[in-house]
Design a protein that fits this description.
Belongs to the transketolase family. The chain has 8 helices and 8 strands; from the N terminus they run E-H-E-H-E-H-E-H-E-E-H-E-H-E-H-H. By secondary structure, the chain is an alpha/beta fold. The chain has a single domain, classed as TIM Barrel (Alpha-Beta Barrel), CATH 3.20.20. Strands 1-8-7-6-5-4-3-2 form an 8-stranded parallel sheet. Bound molecules: D-xylitol-5-phosphate (DX5) and zinc ion. D-xylitol-5-phosphate binds next to strand 2, strand 8 and helix 7.
Length: about 220
């Protein structure tokens, strides 16, 4: 199983426009665009909301991987479904079982892949296991969410291995997504821990050129 996905996070790097950032990585053949939605409440930072995603939807046909770092995601889920995201991931810390099941059902009815994210210090909640076969993406955060450009937390590696193993035992068929501090050094580490979707913010939009950056990440995923 060598299929993998590079998902650049457009909030990283200079404050140039998101449209340009998407076009730049599209030219490099990346598999998806990672969209970090922050509401200033679930995390101490604000980025953009569904209206911006709707606008960006006109720029590319690449899959949109929306990572909702917001409070009460159920109250807003229809906005992200209407914005035509392809994957919508909500945080386990921001919902209970009943809310998650409603989010999952609405996504599945709209043909959108539901995902769930956990912070570095959060475990997979027990309530998720009965629903895991319908979850397409599990994001295991390797930084505390809020900002691009943070340092990778190596202590999440054994956690990712354990999470992946236990999820598979419960019928998980989707992808583990590594998010936070992924670069050409940490990508092989999370690959070995089971991740196949690699979010890269600073590694793609930091000081290196985008073309070289994507090639370097691919090189590391292919070994
Ligand atoms: C953190 C975000 C990440 C971040 C990734 O809150 O969820 O997606 O933008 O950026 P890097 O790769 O720079 O850590
Ligand atoms: Zn993210």
């Amino acid at each position: 199983e060598s299929e993998y996905f590079i998902a650049p996070s457009i909030i990283a790097g200079e404050k140039e426009n998101y449209e340009d950032k998407i076009r730049k990585v599209e030219r490099e053949g990346v598999e998806m665009i990672h969209l970090d939605v922050m509401d200033g409440k679930f995390v101490p930072n604000t980025t953009f909301l569904a209206d911006t995603i709707k606008r960006l939807r006109r720029v590319t046909v690449l899959p949109f991987d929306a990572h909702l770092m917001i409070e009460n995601p159920l109250a807003h889920i229809d906005e992200y479904i209407d914005a035509r995201c392809d994957v919508i991931t909500v945080h386990a810390e921001a919902c209970n079982e009943d809310e998650f099941v409603q989010i999952q059902d609405r996504c599945l009815a709209a043909g959108i892949s539901p995902g769930i994210a956990i912070n570095p210090k959060t475990d997979i909640p027990e309530w998720l296991y009965p629903h895991i076969s319908n979850v397409d993406v599990v994001i295991v955060m390797s930084v505390n969410p809020g900002f691009a450009g943070q340092k990778f937390m190596p202590e999440v590696l054994p956690k990712m291995v354990a999470v992946n193993k236990k999820l598979r035992e419960h019928g998980f068929k989707g992808y583990i997504e590594a998010d936070g501090g992924i670069d050409s050094t940490t990508l092989p580490q999370v690959y070995d821990a089971g991740a196949r979707i690699f979010v890269a913010g600073n590694a793609v939009y930091g000081n290196v050129d985008v073309h070289t950056a994507v090639i370097q990440l691919r090189h590391k995923a292919a070994v």
